[in-house]
Design brief:
It contains nine helices and 14 strands. With 307 residues, the protein is of the alpha/beta class. The chain has two domains: 129 residues, Rossmann fold; 149 residues, Rossmann fold (3-Layer(aba) Sandwich), CATH 3.40.50.
Length: 307
């Protein structure tokens, strides 16, 4: 799928969502996406896939992906390891528009995990399916309501909507940001955890958000820069559209760099290089509180209050 509008819809505004490996046990993480979708007002179809269940949390369950009739916009794969790889291949064969993988244990987990991630890369390359993750805690929109996530922070009673979008290489940070922002009366339009970025990465997703009428600013939380060319293009387009792009780089300390490597398999690059990239392309790089750059700040300009 190459049309950006179709990709955006499948990511942030899907109407038919398959949950592969969904659990009927509310105590399990793999039950959260289904519970959070309904809790926060998703009105589309939820299609749980579990070979041992005929019904999960009040929704009809399917033995396999092939048993689901009709098109599937987005599949969230809640399986681990080789089972997740096989599920992605099934999604590609079935014509699923976008798949996300929750599990870690890929490039973030040494040689064996890296081999599994290579298999994901091969499937994406050979079939053209678009993939978020692995190691993605999910994708969320507040309008329309799509809380497709396993992050426990989304157990809150309501999600505050807003005009800022968040693209993060750290899934856990999304939950922390959500709770702290809500306490300050701040809401978001979209939040997405990109994980290991086998396919869809920060740059391409930011580029999609430039054209989102519900988003006025794009906030990036990054451990490393994998998609620099696309991010530079997104920043230029965001400047032309009057939408600030603000980046917070994680892993600036030696401890943070080790955490980044173990978290998403990222090797944090030079802070000076990252800051120079942001400065060149008009991205506000901040080390402390996020500062909204003025819309008039363009590529090469100096943005007050940002490193």
């Amino acid at each position: 799928m190459t049309d950006p509008k179709d990709l955006f819809t499948a990511l942030f505004e899907p109407r038919r969502i398959a949950l592969i490996g969904a659990s009927a046990d509310p105590a399990k993480t793999t039950s959260r996406p289904q519970r959070f979708l309904r809790k926060h007002g998703f009105t589309g179809e939820i299609l749980p896939v579990n070979p041992s269940r005929g019904e999960i949390l009040g929704e009809k369950a399917y033995k396999s992906l092939d048993a689901i009739p009709g098109d599937i916009d987005h599949a969230y794969i809640l399986l681990n390891g080789a089972a997740a790889v096989a599920a992605l291949a099934d999604c590609a064969r079935r014509g699923v528009k976008v798949a996300s993988i929750l599990a870690g244990g890929f490039a973030d987990a040494g040689e064996a995990g890296a081999s599994l991630q290579d298999e994901l890369t091969r499937i994406v390359r050979e079939t053209g399916i678009r993939l978020v993750g692995p190691n993605s805690i999910g994708t969320v929109s507040t309008d329309p309501a799509v809380a497709l996530t396993a992050n426990a922070a989304f157990a809150v009673d309501r999600l505050r909507s807003g005009r800022w979008a968040v693209v993060s290489q750290s899934g856990s940070l999304i939950g922390a940001l959500l709770s702290r922002a809500d306490a300050r009366g701040i809401g978001f339009s979209r939040l997405i955890s990109v994980g290991n970025e086998v396919n869809l990465a920060v740059g391409e997703i930011s580029d999609l958000l430039v054209d989102d009428p519900g988003t006025d600013a794009i906030l990036l939380f990054m451990e490393t820069l994998r998609d620099g060319e696309r991010l530079a293009r997104a920043a230029r387009r965001a400047h032309a559209a009057g939408k600030p792009v603000i980046a917070y780089k994680l892993g600036r300390s030696s401890i943070g760099q080790e955490l980044a490597k173990s978290h998403t398999g990222a090797i944090a690059g030079s802070d000076a290089t990252f800051d120079a990239f942001c400065h060149r392309h008009g991205i506000a790089a901040t080390e402390g509180h996020a500062v909204i750059a003025p819309a008039s700040s363009g590529p090469g300009s100096t943005i007050p209050g940002c490193g």
